[in-house]
């Protein structure tokens, strides 16, 4: 049945259609949960890029848990162990059953028509609760690579993207979670690039350290894994640096994933070096959270490599508060901080410090 045909049937069904649609959300949750227990479908793709132009994409859901990929690694690599977004659980199932929804007891797979029904449900209703449930189900299904293609093929990317204009913050957050999983697919990225500017603006205007802001940054991390869309983020580098300065450790870690990916692109080096970041020197300190510190070191290493290749010297056009001036204009202070960090308790940090020193 086509999307247009299903639209007609659901409109005629009225309120009953909404209830059935909510049941479909639960069906998808059950189906994807079953897949997780049985080893998964297409698999999750893992880890963010930290030092290579074409790095690895971060994990679908466990962003705070993701490990640092060595700078030498690259390409999109699937890994096992899909972790799904939670949300449509027993409590929601109980509500749906009380509403008279006949739930299937043993779903054996997620089909294109079920995804298509969820997409139309999302397009048809204005109830934020139903929208959230549909988005959670789509986000769960998008943890599997085969479903990422299905959602694109039935026109779901634009429908989910349109949810970014919904005024309810929790709906936008769930939409961003779904887009993040969908952006782990390079063909999807070609369509999703249209949302980069809007999501950069959302990350800038969202409450600092909010889940909505983090969801946007996770999407931008995936979209910055390749060099193709870096130019669309150039004007937001000052925004990213403000978030790095004021955010908590989770926000700092996530924004650094974006900045490290940008810094791996030689074409972005001058934009980053010119950006104001008077606070940056203070982040090269043993008291800084390891995950934050390690990424700051990789960020500086990438920029140093670009500078070395182009044989840059101190240039008058860099402002006193620029990244260039903070790290290389204050070279003595920066060098002392690196020497202190050579005594850091963590092996990964010490190795990255040594690599940075060798680049200088």
From TrEMBL:
It is a single-pass membrane protein. Residues 110-326 form the Armadillo repeat-containing domain. Residues 36-89 are annotated as: Disordered. Residues 45-56 have a biased composition (Basic and acidic residues). Keywords: Membrane, Mitochondrion, Mitochondrion outer membrane, Transmembrane, Transmembrane helix. The chain crosses the membrane at residues 9-29. Gene3D superfamilies: Leucine-rich Repeat Variant. This is Armadillo repeat-containing protein 10 isoform X1. It is found in: Mitochondrion outer membrane. One of its GO terms (cellular component) is mitochondrial outer membrane. It comes from Eublepharis macularius (Leopard gecko).
